[in-house]
């Protein structure tokens, strides 16, 4: 079996027995690394005065990691710049929030060069190399230019935008060209793959034949590989003492009301504003139901150095305050809006206590919260998943109550439907959902991608 080299912006350093505090992706990649041997390479999250290529090596729980520090300017231009002010909004269809600055692109290319230079000597001839996400699109090409002949795969965790949006990026062609240095490119859904194929055929004169995509004399395999969660682990987490304790706290605070929950990084792509407005509409149009529901939104802040993230935070502070001011009573708060994270087990208990999960992003590559919510439910009395049609997860999770998050009325209707849903129907839908979440878990996803990469011709 070939060794595996995982490369991503950040590296999750494994600690023994701490898997419950890590995301499913980290758990899956660590288990693939344990199986294959090899290492996980990325940015340490630390700053250095002058970049000198120093590599910090570590080993934890059978996984080797190698990280580098970056300069302040690198972080500004690459991470807070091109990755999170240009590509992230553009890939989430938010051209209105997309910033186009040549310096950002310069920093992006420079950091990808730094990654290529430092990881190159760590890779051996037969290793499989797996690059992750929009931060590192050009890395494969940079490795090829340095002579790497290994099989290299790339997985995009975000949506791939429609051609007519992507072409707003001045360097769109260069970006897509660089993807052709990989052997395998993976997306979460057919939709994202379709958009990619459309760009290749309409803008590059390329061809598509099944999963073989060719352009400019290069041929790659472009596949759909929907990510899952570590379902078994999450089901167990939802039954832990910590989860039971969190669930009981939820029940006690609810005093018999129906609980709704949302859990999202504080990000404009997650549709939090529209979700609050949907709940507002529900309260406005159902006066008889006021006081009978309680909505908990957990939203730990992210990317705080980027202005749009500061703006969304201020916007949601105001909106939740306005809704509470309008509808709250001496013994009832309609929205509990919490800007901090909870340990994974507590989160599982919170999901389990909630009668409804509102997972309503405006655009999302996949969305793992939808899958975690399903995995945490009590099989005898499961809650209802309200899921945006614009989440990649909606392609797999057809038995959820699907909504258009832009419509406050549809969101309000979905809440009414979910609140009224009879137990038999909840069980039937949940059973279909959990079957999928169990079958297509994160280990299945990892195998699907790596098997395809292993089969790719060298
Ligand atoms: C990107 C893509 C794609 C959140 N709050 C807490 C907490 N979380 C955890 C959730 C979940 C994860 O963070 C979020 O995953 P998502 O998939 O929802 O979203 P992104 O962070 O945007 O991830 C996305 C994913 O990559 C994988 O490919 O699905 O579309 O955007 O696991 O549980 N975890 C804890 N406390 C919190 O308060 N412990």
Automatic annotation (TrEMBL):
Gene Ontology annotations of biological process type: trehalose biosynthetic process
**Pfam families per UniProt:** Glyco_transf_20
Which keywords label this protein? Glycosyltransferase, Transferase
According to its UniProt record, this protein's enzyme class is transferase
What domain of life is recorded for the organism?
Answer: Bacteria
**Which InterPro entries does this one have?**
Glyco_trans_20 (IPR001830)
Can you say what this protein is called?
A: Trehalose 6-phosphate synthase
* EC number(s) on file: 2.4.1.15
- Source organism per entry reads Sphingomonas abaci
Q: Which GO terms describe its molecular function?
A: alpha,alpha-trehalose-phosphate synthase (UDP-forming) activity
Q: Which Gene3D superfamilies match?
A: Glycogen Phosphorylase B
């Amino acid at each position: 079996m070939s060794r595996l080299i995982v490369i991503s912006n950040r590296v999750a350093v494994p600690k023994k027995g701490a898997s419950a505090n890590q995301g499913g992706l980290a758990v899956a990649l660590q288990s693939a690394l344990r199986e294959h041997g090899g290492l996980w390479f990325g940015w340490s999250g630390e700053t250095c005065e002058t970049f000198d290529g120093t590599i910090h090596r570590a080993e934890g729980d059978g996984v080797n990691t190698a990280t580098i520090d970056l300069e302040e300017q690198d972080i500004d231009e690459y991470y807070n710049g091109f990755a999170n002010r240009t590509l992230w909004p553009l890939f989430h269809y938010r051209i209105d929030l997309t910033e186009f600055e040549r310096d950002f692109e310069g920093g992006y290319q420079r950091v990808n060069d730094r990654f290529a230079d430092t990881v190159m000597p760590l890779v051996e001839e037969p290793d499989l190399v797996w690059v992750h996400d929009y931060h590192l699109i050009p890395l494969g090409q940079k490795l090829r230019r340095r002579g790497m002949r290994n099989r290299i795969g790339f997985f995009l965790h975000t949506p791939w935008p429609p051609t007519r949006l992507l072409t707003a990026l001045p360097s769109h062609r260069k970006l897509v060209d660089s993807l052709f240095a990989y052997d395998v490119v993976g997306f979460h859904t057919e939709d994202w793959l379709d958009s990619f194929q459309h760009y290749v055929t309409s803008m590059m004169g390329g061809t598509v034949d099944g999963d073989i995509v060719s352009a400019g004399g290069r041929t790659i395999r472009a596949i759909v590989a929907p990510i899952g969660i570590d379902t078994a682990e999450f089901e167990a987490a939802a039954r832990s003492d910590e989860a039971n304790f969190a669930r009981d706290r939820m029940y006690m605070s609810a005093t018999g009301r129906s609980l709704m929950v949302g859990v999202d990084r504080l990000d404009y792509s997650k549709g939090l504003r529209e979700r609050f407005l949907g709940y507002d509409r529900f309260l406005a149009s159902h006066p008889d139901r006021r006081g009978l529901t309680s909505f908990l939104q957990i939203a730990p802040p992210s990317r705080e150095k980027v202005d749009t993230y500061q703006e969304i935070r201020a916007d949601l502070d105001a909106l939740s305050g306005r809704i509470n001011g309008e509808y709250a009573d001496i013994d009832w708060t309609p929205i509990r809006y919490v800007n901090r994270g909870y340990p994974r087990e507590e989160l599982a208990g919170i999901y389990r206590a909630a009668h409804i999960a509102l997972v309503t992003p405006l655009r999302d590559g996949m969305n793992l919260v939808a899958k975690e919510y399903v995995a945490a439910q009590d099989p005898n009395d499961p809650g209802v998943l309200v899921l945006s049609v614009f989440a990649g997860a909606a392609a797999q999770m057809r038995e959820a109550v699907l909504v258009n998050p832009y419509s406050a009325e549809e969101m309000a209707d979905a809440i009414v439907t979910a609140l009224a849903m009879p137990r038999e129907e909840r069980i039937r839908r949940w059973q279909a959902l959990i079957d999928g979440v169990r079958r297509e878990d994160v280990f299945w996803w990892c195998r699907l991608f790596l098997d395809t990469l292993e089969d790719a011709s060298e």
